[in-house]
Structure formats: C-alpha cells, structure tokens
Amino acid sequence: MPADPMSTALLPAGLHDVLPNEASHEADTVERLLAEFAGLGYQRVKPPLVEFEDSLLSGSGAAMAQQTFRLMDPLSQRMMAVRADITPQIARIATTRLKNEPRPVRLCYAGQVLRVKGSQLRQERQFTQVGVELIGPLQPEADAEVILLAVQALEAVGVPHLSVDLCVPTMVSRICRGLGLGEEETRHLRAALDRKDAAGVAAVGGPAAPLLQTLMAASGPAGRAMQALGALALPEAAETDRRRLTETLRLLRAAKPDLTVTIDLVEHRGFEYQTGLSFTLFSRDASGELGQGGRYRAGARPDAEEDGEPSTGFTLYMDTLLRVVPATQAARRVFVPHGTDWAVAGKLRAEGWVTVAGLSPAADPVAEARRLQCGHRLADGSVQPVD
Amino acid sequence: MPADPMSTALLPAGLHDVLPNEASHEADTVERLLAEFAGLGYQRVKPPLVEFEDSLLSGSGAAMAQQTFRLMDPLSQRMMAVRADITPQIARIATTRLKNEPRPVRLCYAGQVLRVKGSQLRQERQFTQVGVELIGPLQPEADAEVILLAVQALEAVGVPHLSVDLCVPTMVSRICRGLGLGEEETRHLRAALDRKDAAGVAAVGGPAAPLLQTLMAASGPAGRAMQALGALALPEAAETDRRRLTETLRLLRAAKPDLTVTIDLVEHRGFEYQTGLSFTLFSRDASGELGQGGRYRAGARPDAEEDGEPSTGFTLYMDTLLRVVPATQAARRVFVPHGTDWAVAGKLRAEGWVTVAGLSPAADPVAEARRLQCGHRLADGSVQPVD
After folding, report:
1. B87 is in an annotated binding site
2. Which value does ipTM take for this structure?
3. Matching PROSITE patterns, A to Z (chains A, B) (predicted)?
C-alpha cells in the first residue's frame, strides 16, 4: 500500500490503513494459506497481542527485545509487552499448554505484530505474520515437510516462479570449532563471509580458510553446491549438518522434482536464532523474501543448545507476498433499486452477486448504479448491464 | 474459553491463548460473517492496531479513553494509543481517506482490540471485534438494512432463535426537553428509568412522568409497544424518533415477517454515544448480547449533535457469539505413513482429507494413527478406518 499524504498526516510513521480491495485481498490470501496448512494437519492457534514481558521476551523471543513496545499492567503491576513476533508465542503454547499433546505438534497462526521501529528496507511497524511450527521431530522429513508446505501454500495463492534457498547457519561455526578457531577469529571470518569477501576469508580464516572459500564458491544451484560439499573433508561436528542437508534435498527432489533449489553454504545473517537447516522463499517476480524458516529449539533457554524441543517452521511476509499474489476476481456489483424485496436481493446474492441497495428512490437508476460503482442493475425483474 | 490454571499463571488476567479447534472456529466464523457483509457491498478495511492518541480518542473515540493503553512513539515523540474499539477508526477512514467516495459508504471490519481492564461481566481484555458501518444516509432504509444484515449474518453462521431489541436512546431526553425539564431533573429521571423504577419516575418526572411511565410499561413485543407509542401525544422534538422507529419496524416486518422484534422505549444505558435508532441482538440460547449497533454521526466533534455524517452500523461480540455458533464439522484426519509420495497425500487432500504424515517409520501404523488422533490411515493404497 503506498503511503498517501493524508495517511501520513493522520497516522504514525509505519502504520497505515488498509483500504477496500487491498484489505479483502489480504484477508482472503491469509485464509487460503491457512487452509493449505490445515490440509496437512497444522492446527490454528491464536495467542494474545500482549503478554508479560518476561514471558514474551524469554528464549528466542529475546531477539526482539529492542523492537518491542512495553505496557504497564494496572492489574498485576507487572510490565507487559506487545508482541513483535508470533513465533515465540507458538513455541510457548506448544511447550506449556500443549505439552501433553502427542508429538509432533503441528500448529499454524495468522496475526498482527507491532514493532518499535521499521527497518531501512521495511518502514512498516505493523505486520501480518502467517506461519507454521512443527514441534517435536528431529528427522529431515520434518524439514522437507515444512519447506514443501510453504511452497505448496504459496503456489495455491498463485505466487509464480518460486525458489527455495537452503542454508545451514550452524555449519560454519561447527567447522571453525572443529578446526580449533577461537571466538574472535570466527567472528572476523563471519564478517568476511557475510561480505562474500574471498580475500578477507583467506586473510582471517587460518586453517578454515580453504574449506570456507570452497563452500563460498560452491553456493548456488543445489546440484553443484552438493557436489562440491560432498567432495570436502569436513570436521566431524559439521557432518550432521551435511547429512541433514543431503537428505532434506533428496526428499524435496523426490516430492517436487521441478522445484528450484539453491544452497548457500555460508549463509548466517538473519538466522542467528536458528539451530540447523534453514531456508528462505523467493519468487522471481518479488523484490524481497517471501518468507523464512528453519530449525530451532522450542522452549529453550538462551545459549542452551541442547535445551528445549527440536522444532522447525516458517513465517511468511505478507507485505512482500501480497505484491505477487494475483487478486481474486471481485464479485460483480448489481444495483438493487429502492423498494426491492429483501428476498429478491437475497436470491441474487445466492447467485454470486454483490447487491448494492438504493436507500431512497433514484430519478435515474442507471446513473445511480454507475455512481455506486455497479456494473449492473436490477430492472424489470432481471439483471441488466449499465454500460 | 475457560481459563485453566496454567494459562492464568503465564498470561496477564483477561488475556488468553485460543487453542486448536477454538481458534479455527473463531476464524471461520469471522470470515463467514464478513462474507455476508460483502454480499451487500460492505467493503473490508483494516485500520492499524495503534494510532496517535489525539486521533484515536477524538469524537466518539473519547468514550474509551479510560480503557485505552498508551504507548510513546519514539519516532514522533508523540503519544500513541492501542485501539480499544475499531468503530471510531472506521468513521475516521470514511470521513478522511474515503471522503471522496460516493455516499453511502459501506464498510466492514474484523480485528483485535485491547482494553486496560475487563468489566465484571467480561473479564477479557482482548476482543475480536467484527462489524459494519454504513456512512452517509439518513433514511430508515439504512437502519433497516444494517439490522437485517446483522440478522442474516448471524443466521448464516447458525445462531438460533434470534431477536432484535430496538430502542431510541434520544427519545427520553427529547421528551424531557420538550416538556421543559432541566438537566438535573432529567438525570434523576434517567436513573429511575434505568432501574425500571416506576415509583421513582413518578416522584422525579414532573410533567414528563405520565408519558414516561406509559413508555416504560409499553416496552416489550414490538406490536404492543408501537400501539402504545402511537396513542401518545409526544412533544414535537420526539416526533422524528417515533416516525423513524415506526418506519424502520415496517421495513423489518416487510423483509422478514418472522423476526422477533422487541422495543424498549426508555433504554439508554450503553447507547450514550448513539444519536438515534439503536438495537441489540440476542439469541434465546446465548446468555448475553450478541451485538449492538445504531445511529451516530461519523467524524462529529463531541457534543456537536449536527456535526459529522449521519451513520449507522453494528458490532458483534465474538466471545458471546462463538458460544452459540455450532462448530463446523472438522475435516477427517488420515494418517499417511512414512515414505508416502507427496503427490499421493496431495490427492487425498484434494478429496477433502487432512493428511497427517508419519515422519519416520512406525512399527504399528494403526497405533501410530490413533496416537496422532487420526480416525483413518492410508494402507495398501486406500483409506481405511483405524477403529
């Protein structure tokens, strides 16, 4: 939605009114996505907009602390926080209220989140967040399921030319640790990798440099990347990551041979809280990411890698998404003149018309139909075009 | 949703997680209601959760000032407010961003609101608000349209035994003014009427007492109430209210002869911001009100009765409503064992099944299907019951 001057004057920056057509387009798209999730047994939950701060910002929620509005609760005299991300709420629900449900737990959600500041890329401060979480299973089958579900849901709402970029954000740090690099060296190396700076990697990579340069160069189409990765001698700690990536890719190809998959073997940014195989969803027609997901541990304390339940999931970014989802055909509006029986208009609605009633007699019903943006009108008992 | 001890411990009072089944029941119901609104040309809009305080709490929004959470906006250094009511936002959109759209403007919405405290009756502090606004028209046809739309939408989601209670909250004050009562006397009289205290009305009503006692006694089934009202000599100022009520009732009966309509001729509480014909929706099966609506002036300054645009609309209370909306039949879950082709499961989904995939081989597929709450499983290429 482009910000118009009037909206800018009335509303705080990054907050806007979604007007007719756009609002129903968004709501329809959200419900169609959720219907796809439901088809694979993902059950909808709806956490509240506000929670106690210490609950909302614990574990993986801590990442959003700077972006979270606080509210004092007059009832409990405790600080509350307005959610800036729904994912930690779903993990909380799964690991507390649904802790006795059989594993894996499959959950999905759609809702609004609020952030203190927009980013340079995204000025918005309120987002519609839509996603799924699959809590409990360790198997690559779980990684494949959520990726395939994301792809299927995006295809179902009409997003063209999809591709999935896989990464394993833990692999680089495991390689570095396996080769005996210190924390400081690893941080420098990360910065060089984030810049895709091969010379920098060579300069600060020490014993890991050759391996990481190969990984960096091999990133791209899945076939080539996996061939390069397969030929490398990796430290034992990174073996699990390679095996999971290989197996997930095999499952994706078996299920959907025509899916475009790329692999970034050194990706890390934006996945700081992921604990294993992760992915980003793109469309050739969209300018940014459509969504992102990956492994994490639900209910884990910060920095306790083996804590919590193994989980994966994804979040779709509705703002980017809606720019590439084709609008569903708007229902046709028929002007129903003043005095028309309620039941007669009801019959038209049952046939798929939107009936726009005249609330007083109109001297020129054709002009009145046009004024009310109706392409048709009811006259002499039948629907007639007004153009 | 009953509060369980765990939820109480984790979340602030009046805020809760909506869990599987309940959450999809709510979302489905909301979308079905909005589809009914769309059928009569009501277009969906989606205002933000947060606005500048002075915008959100101006005009009719001022009523919610005590119930509204404030947030400081770090970008503008101005105070923002989290909406406690969506209605003023829709009026703002209609009278500013959509001010050049042809009248009447028909808008609808669904969204979350947050309140500082729950009431004794409703402990919840977050509500799902769903409703419509019809902005621009003065005619009783507009009053009838929104009432009939509310009834039709509630019937469409399966609410049984509906009734509508009409009132004209301006009538008593117009009668009092017409008969020369002062502000103080009118206030005492209001209190007596609110208590349905006929002796009190006699004691403080002065010249208005006989008229108001008759109105109080006549409240009830529409036919009897209108007969009593028709026989009264009203001050000129109250004549418009009587005419509008009579005409609206005639339109309701013509459209829907079997609708149960009652009339409260002295009702006032809960309609402090209404400027004319108002209504409350009930079901014999529900313990509270399902929704409420009525006349107001969109974009009016407080206490400027003739300011703004004549409007009407209603809000449905989803918490009460969901208790009487029958759950839609849950889709049947079929367990799809590990290794099943993605396409095979997709075919089952196309037939209406929810497919729950096994993520690893199961020694006893029947037991595994049961554990995952599936009534069926895929075996030997066909769907089989597991019980």
Report:
1. yes
2. 0.94
3. AA_TRNA_LIGASE_II
